[in-house]
Amino acid sequence: MTLVQPADTRLAASVDRSIQLIQTGKAAGSTCSPDLAKGPWEFDAGPVAYGPGSSMGDVIPTGSPRQGALPESYKTASDAELHDRIRAAKATLGERVVVLGHFYQRDEVVEHADFVGDSFQLANAALTRPDAEAIVFCGVHFMAETADLLSTPDQAVILPNLAAGCSMADMADEESVEACWAELEDVYGDLTATDAAGRVPVIPVTYMNSSAALKGFVGRHGGLVCTSSNARTVLEWAFERGQRVLFFPDQHLGRNTAKALGVPLEQMPMWNPRRALGGSSADELLDARVILWHGFCSVHRRFTVDQIAQARIDHPGVQVIVHPECPMPVVDAADAAGSTDFIVKAIQAAPAGSTFAIGTEINLVQRLAAEYPQHEIFCLDPVVCPCSTMYRIHPGYLAWVLEELVAGRVVNRITVSDEVAEPARVALERMLAAKPPASVAPVDSGRDAPADAPRSTVEA
Ligand code: SF4
Question: Which CATH number is 32-165+389-413's, of 3.30.450.20, 3.40.1190.20, 3.40.50.10800, 3.10.20.310?
Fold first, then answer.
């Protein structure tokens, strides 16, 4: 597990500052929305929506959590005042609180984090602080749920802004997945019956970026969770036990990983929950090896093959590394693809003077550029467009939840019911126990990946 401790260089990489400079004409460049310069509370008070950023065009489910009004003093405080209030509250709380900051979170929040990492790294990091009464998760809703699954019952997991959901996680809701499962039963028959090789018709696999309810669903149906780091191992585990896999919510991670394992694209039909049998025929589903849910991350969908071509023209010798949530043509055109952890390690391992174009959320890219000045590191997408929901966490909300804790009040607590938590933990335990079968050789299809970096199309 790689956890990055907060570094002094972090604020030099501020995406917030870049946005302000661009929008006031003091720096070149463009942003995807003028609203990115506003405080997130301006959107919390309006209609329920993902807000400015990569997901602003996505349809938000009705009934999505909304954040109540943030007290005025947090909205009007200067950056410096919020910084000092957060530090003071943390100092008062001491070991009673642990603050987790996701890689994609803004630097003005990350600088206060005790741990910085991806969602599963952070949930595990919280396990190292069993005496903390509160875990403040500066990330999005499903991440706070995962932390609640893994924390002790006495620990309160807090999401500073309840509007920080995840548009991709929202694309697969429990009701739609249950309906899909019932339709698959019509096609495959008894979903618990095994063939001569001892395999059931279909194993459900959910990406970590999904609700606890879906983690519980796969736990109840013999499936498991995967991360972008272990998706290959998880699919191999599933293929040993099932004739095929139902993979949700991210079609791209599923397709990229299955393709690296040699599954033909013709055997990866897409499941559109708004169409009968997901839009495929029964024969296509019978022939399927991986059924891909119709979900995607709007941050990673912004990256294109044309951007890669342009980066290669503008920066001869550039190494292009993208996240496996990117569309398949982008992953294929890149030099390497892998999780955020993979990207960080590739940069760490590179000789000084390397040039990287990175296809992942811009807060992480700008932070890496500041932390590794011996390299040239830039975001593959020239338009500044952070994750809409990570954006909803602002230092004002962090100051608020911490000062409420100082006053003895827990606000914005995220809890997962025991009914959901039990099978969801089973699905997570299966993931941790999954090992790649000895007979399967690693795939290495990365082109010109950094010499000492892990080399694979999708990190295993
Ligand atoms: S980057 Fe994508 S997957 Fe991650 S929280 Fe944002 S929308 Fe969800």
Answer: 3.40.50.10800
- Asked if the domains 32-165+389-413 and 300-384 are classified in one and the same CATH topology, the answer is yes
Q: In this structure, which amino acid lies at residue 290?
A: V
Q: Which residue CA neighbors atom 8 of ligand 1 most closely?
A: 166
Closest listed residue to residue 234, CA positions, set 195, 290, 183, 196: 290
Which pLDDT belongs to residue 11?
60
Choose one of 103, 140, 365 to mutate for the ligand 1 pocket test, by most ligand atoms within 8 angstroms of C-beta: 140
Question: What confidence tens digit (pLDDT) does each residue in 103-124 have?
Answer: 999 999 999 999 999 988 998 8
Q: Which atom of ligand 1 is nearest to the CA of 389?
A: 6
CA within 13 Å, CB half, 123: 20
Region 371-379: what's the mean pLDDT?
A: 97
Q: Where are the domains of the chain?
A: 32-165+389-413, 170-298+420-433, 300-384
Stated pTM of the model: 0.92
By most ligand atoms within 8 Å of CB, the mutation choice from 143, 146, 167 for ligand 1 is 167
What is the per-residue pLDDT for 436? 60
Tokens of 270: 């897409």
Tell which atom from ligand 1 comes closest to the C-alpha of 169: 8
**Distance (Å, rounded) from C-alpha 419 to C-alpha 213?**
9
Rounded mean pLDDT, 44-73: 94
Under a CB-based contact definition with an 8 Å cutoff, are residues 453 and 350 in contact?
Answer: yes
Q: Which CATH superfamily is domain 300-384 in?
A: NadA-like (3.40.50.10800)
Q: Whose CA is nearest to atom 3 of ligand 1?
A: 297
Atom number, ligand 1, closest to the C-alpha of residue 55: 7
